[in-house]
Amino acid sequence: MTGTFLVFLVLCVATICGALLTLWSRYVVHAAFGLMISLLGVAGFYLLLGSDFLAVTQVVVYVGGVVVLYLFGVMLTPPDLEERSKKRIAVVGGIAVLALIGLLRSVFQLSAHWKNLPLAGTKEGEPGLIDSVGRSFLESDRFLLPFEVASVLLLVALVGAVFLARRKVEVEE
Amino acid sequence: MKRDGAMAWLGNIKDAVWSTMVGMGITFRHLFKKPVTYQYPEDVVPVATRYRGMHFLEQDKCIACRACEKACPVDCIEIRFLRHPGSVNEWFEFSLDYNKCMFCELCCSPCPEDCIHEGKEFGFVRYERSELVVDLTTWKGLRDVDHQRIKEAEEEKKRKAAEMAAKKKAAAAKKAAEAKAAEAKAAEVKAAENKTAEPKAPEAQSTKDKTSETKASELKAAEEKAETKAMPAPSKPVSDQAASDQVSADPSSAEKTADKSPAEKASPDKASKDSSSADKAAPDKAAAEPAAGKPEAGEKAAGKPGVDEKVVGKTGAGEMAREKDEGTPQGKPKGKPQGKSKKGASKKKTGGKGKKKPKGGGK
Amino acid sequence: MSIASVWTVLAVQASGAGAGEGAGTGATGILKGLAAYGFWGYLVAALLGFAILFGIASALPILFTWAERRVSGRMQQRWGPNRVGPFGLIQALADGIKLMFKEDIIPAKADKLLFMVAPGIVLAGMLSAFALIPLSDSAVVVDTPLGVYLITALLSLEVIGVIMAGWASNNKWSLFGAMREAAQMVSYEIPFGLCILLAVVSYGTLSLREMSLAQAGGFLNVGNWLIFHNPLFALPAALIFFIAALANTKRAPFDLPEAESELVSGFHTEYSGLRFSFFFLEEYASMFVISVILIAMYLGGWNLPFVPGSAMTGSFGAELLAVLSMLFKAFVLVFVMIWIRWTLPRIRIDQVMSLCYKYLTPIAFVCLIGTCWWELST
């Protein structure tokens, strides 16, 4: 138990420090890396809670995807920014992180069965949490609707992105 | 062909897969080919026939005339010698500064004895600049590898000389018919005299030369030519040496040596000197003469009894051989300015064996 | 920097050790046994596993760099390294020692912390992935039900390290390399992921070990290999996976992040010594990891033709045979990667992108849907 607690402490420190770094870093890229640490810390919490699948998804989607995309955009900024933009970015970053945290929190509030969900590998006959996550998403009496709505939202975003990209080409013509 | 829409898409896939497979096939085939690498320190890269590398000095032939020293455009050759009026100069240092040398080969052309050549050695890597000043008399400053290569070059030169002699013999045999045979008797006697005059003339060498000669004489001229070409990288210098060897090897070489020694340079008609004086001078040189050259003397003498005729014939053959080996005579257009003019003069004087000269020039 | 790698591996292994069920044989068994002693057991098991993995993960690149140089040499009709040891075999070891003793230069204008941490992150992702690949039924350090999904996550960490290295170097070439890496990796993870999904759909499991087990048997004992079991869709998918894997490991013709002729050395231009060798190590080790994933998913895992699947599991000898078989297959694939590298020229970045989005992704989608239909109809 002490070991688990130690890990929990380390994760807490990592997550909070990452978040603070994101807020107050002088460099945007540092902020992005701070965000990465923070997100990895969150993934660690999921792991600690026995939610392997969610942890890995966190890493794949947020660390491997979102942060990389942030970096992709942010890397083109010069390393030394003006004070004004620093502040602004810190504020924007802070709001973004808060929004993210709020979003995550609301998502899990929405599920409302957080405490009742089985821990990974604890349920007999279950190969892990993947199975139960999959079932809860795709069984019609559980989270099928939110799942589908989310996917439609992503589809809309995708189509919107394509539309924006296309319009540019048309302007050139 | 132009594709559009789905066909273009599919066609691109087909092209990509197909071209990748073709490319991979090519690389896979090359995987099993023998590498073409020369693993340098062990394998020596064969250099071109006319490669100009480190100089190779035939010490026994050099007469310290300093023609090369004068010819050198960058003054990288320095010769130090003692004068012996009436005899050959005794030289004790022949240093070549490879810091300066640009391998123009201009030093090789004026040499009356044809004793300095550019060899095939190309490794000039040293730790210090001073090490690049090489004394060609002692080969000081050379590495073991260089020494070995020089030794090899010398052996090659000897082999070449023997071969060339054989070739010449065959050519001579063809041309000079039975009249020669009669003359040969007299020459044989002279050759014997020569041999006795020499301090050392290894029997083995002479027998080897003879066998190669007899063998070569059986071959047709074309075959001989092919053989020379097939020789492993016959360098130009070596072939030159071979040609010059014959000139220097016969008894008249001593006479020629005398010719070009500074003391006697003044007299232009040295070639008409009779054989008695040549014989007299021979012992001086013979001590230093390479053993290889000697036996040929008899052979050559057999071919051409008259001294003057001999000289003429030799020059012709020498040039011919050189041109044969190189393909072009460009390397040394005016082989030996002095000697040549003299020989030309002598040729005019004798006129008798003029046959050979035109042939050599025409080749 | 190595703290980062240790940390990641620890996390992975702790999770894996927790999720593993029952006692296996060999190293896994020991690790699992240790893990039964609570957290400190986990820690010891994880450290032990880390040591083993680090050994393997550093030994393989030595072999592969040697192979790469020899093969490329022979393809160009050269000899390749042949001076150090028999056939130049320990040339790579000599190079490694040389790299270790070289000065570790950090540019004055570089972002020091990120510059130092980046190689560790790159190495950590790869090492952790090493823990998850099954060489036989029991020769897998961490056997989690997440399997291949976790590997994808860990390999995607590598991009972060590369971007970090590129940006921290404060060098325009490095930055360009990092940008290309980011664009390339994010793009190619789509066909890569789709091809993994195809295998997951076929087997109904994420564990590479279980996938390999499932491919035993069938006609000549190859009939159940995914590419033969479902040739219409799995064969192109395997090819797509392989191409995407080349892009993910930054191998030619997708080596744009390091493109020597354009970007000096890309994202690791400024690195030297040991830190440089980490990037080097990562490239070659990930070649192996990716090959094993492809084999486990599509090429029958450790199963061999004519050898019944039961002969590949159970006893120690059988497991050894399985490991050798897996290694053999992986080496063949690594050879193919080397072969491709020395055949194809580097392609332009727009070609890389159009290949991914116009060709690989649609085909992978078709293959995935086709496989769903195939699996449902049979």
What features would you describe in this structure?
The complex is a heterotrimer of chains A (173), B (363) and C (378). Chain A has 173 residues and is an all-alpha fold. Helix content of chain A is 78%, strand content 0%. Chain A has a domain at 2-118: NADH-ubiquinone/plastoquinone oxidoreductase chain 6, subunit NuoJ (Four Helix Bundle (Hemerythrin (Met), subunit A), Up-down Bundle), CATH 1.20.120. In chain A, 27% of the residues are buried. The model of chain A is unreliable at 110-115 and 117-128 (pLDDT under 50). Chain B has two domains: 55-147, Alpha-Beta Plaits; 155-362, no CATH class. Helices cover 54% and strands 6% of the residues of chain B. Chain B starts with a helix and ends with a helix. Chain C has 378 residues and is mainly α. Chain C has one domain. In chain C, 70% of the residues lie in helices and 0% in strands. Chain C has helices spanning 2-19, 26-35, 38-75, 91-101, 112-132, 147-168, 172-203, 208-214, 226-229, 231-248, 260-263, 273-297, 316-341, 349-377. Chain C is globular, with a radius of gyration of 20 Å. Classes of the chains: A mainly alpha (173), B mainly alpha (363), C mainly alpha (378). The A-C interface holds A 1-4, 6-7, 27, 29-30, 33, 36, 44, 47, 50, 52-53, 55-56, 59-60, 63-65, 67-69, 71-72, 75-76, 79, 120-121, 127-128, 130 and C 11, 14-15, 18-19, 21, 38-40, 42-43, 111, 114, 144-146, 149-150, 152-154, 156-157, 159-160, 163-164, 166-167, 170, 175, 178-179, 182-183, 185-186, 189, 205-206.
